[in-house]
Design brief:
The longest helix is centred in the C-terminal third of the chain and has 27 residues, at about 250-275. This protein folds into 2 domains: about 5-125, no CATH class; about 130-355, no CATH class. The chain is of the alpha/beta class and about 350 residues long. It has 13 helices and 7 strands. The chain is elongated, with a radius of gyration of 22 Å. A 5-stranded mixed sheet has the order 5-4-3-6-7. A two-stranded antiparallel ribbon has the order 1-2. β4 (about 185-190) and β5 form a beta hairpin.
């Protein structure tokens, strides 16, 4: 899909509407009112990549902010149709034209619906993607300790980055190539033990790390975030020891324990891209809308986690881990405006010694 590729057609449609010369094309009828309700549970999941309950929950959360559009010659596009069509766009590889035909809306209307829903979802971000309370942190660190199969305690989140491939922008294209020789936006995120994204930041590769620069404000002294080796070692951000073939047995044991916890963020990204396959290649010309689209997917991902069954989620994760390969940002240098001191190294050493 190219969300913006039909700009000329959209403008042409708008002019025809103003002149009163527009003839409605022969599009699919009653898809939302008859065909979708007839889907089996499995068919619904295969198409929308979400369970019916998850989608209904998305509608309950999002509907208050979604406005009924008044395009299509005066016929309003209702809220449910807007959300269904936009989630279909994000969840499938279908072309913009085919989604327009399937949901019986014009391309200009679908474009407006997409921008509106994405913008609305970003307004929900502070209430959906947020840091856990102190009480929740305690339970999260207990669960991460169990994952590590050692007494690696006090992890309240895992941070990593994932590339979202995009076409080369017309402006500032040199800001977006990765070291793997394709253009991308970097999604930096922190997730908890349940794969919920609790902080997220999307920008060009190697950009100032917004997540890392903010997290230190929210991590109490005894807790920390598990990180990949690409991240700086800080008192609240602990990466593994870099293996240069001189690691001690204790350091290797620490790395293995930390790695078990860090697998959570890999599963989180796999599930996110399993739900929203458009993130495999986000073909959009309006570069300013791309980070908003990525964050919108993160918000929908969070909302759906409570309602998708475990087997379905595990299938999505396995499918994506098999097909995506390595899309992590491990090769990308990060920058952050945080003073690096010896306190991080000392804390990591203390944690290593405490492991059994």
């Amino acid at each position: 899909i190219n969300i913006d590729s039909s700009d000329d057609e959209i403008d042409y449609e708008f002019i025809k509407r103003l002149r009163g010369t527009r003839v409605k094309p022969n599009r699919m009828q009653d898809f939302t009112t008859q065909r979708i309700p007839s889907f089996t549970h499995r068919q619904f999941q295969q198409h929308f990549r979400l369970s019916p309950t998850s989608l209904e929950r998305c509608f309950v959360v999002c509907a208050p902010l979604v406005k009924k559009t008044c395009i299509e010659g005066g016929k309003g596009t209702d809220k449910r149709l807007q959300l269904l069509s936009v989630i279909w766009l994000l969840s499938t590889p279908d072309s913009f034209r085919s989604v327009s035909d399937r949901f019986d809306v014009g391309k200009s209307t679908l474009h407006d619906n997409f921008v509106h829903v994405v913008t609305m979802l970003n307004k929900l971000s502070p209430t959906v993607i947020n840091w856990p309370t102190v009480e929740k942190m305690n339970q999260i660190q207990i669960n991460f300790g169990k994952m590590s199969k050692t007494n690696l305690n006090n992890i309240i989140g895992v941070i990593d980055g994932s590339y979202i491939p995009i076409p080369a922008p017309k402006k500032s294209a040199n800001s977006y190539p990765t070291r793997k020789c394709f253009h991308a936006i970097t999604l930096q995120a922190v997730c908890d033990d349940k794969l919920r994204i609790i902080d997220a930041f999307a920008d060009y590769p190697g950009s100032d790390n917004g997540v890392l620069n903010q997290c230190f404000r929210y991590v109490p002294g005894q807790y920390f975030i598990a990180a990949d080796k690409m991240y700086p070692i800080l008192e609240w951000c602990i990466p593994p020891f870099i293996d240069r073939d001189v690691l001690s047995d204790q350091e290797k044991f620490f790395n293995v324990s930390l790695s078990r916890a860090r697998q959570t963020i890999e599963r989180c990204f796999a599930l996110l891209k399993g739900h929203f396959r458009r993130l495999k290649y986000l073909d959009m010309k309006k570069i300013e809308l791309i980070p908003q689209t990525i964050i919108a997917c993160c918000i929908l991902h969070y909302i759906c986690l409570k309602f998708d069954d475990n087997q379905w989620m595990n299938n999505l994760i396995s499918e994506q881990q098999l097909n995506l390969g390595d899309d992590s940002t491990t090769d990308q240098l990060l920058t952050c405006h945080i003073e690096i001191t010896q306190s991080g190294c000392l804390k990591r050493d203390q944690i290593m010694v405490s492991l059994i």
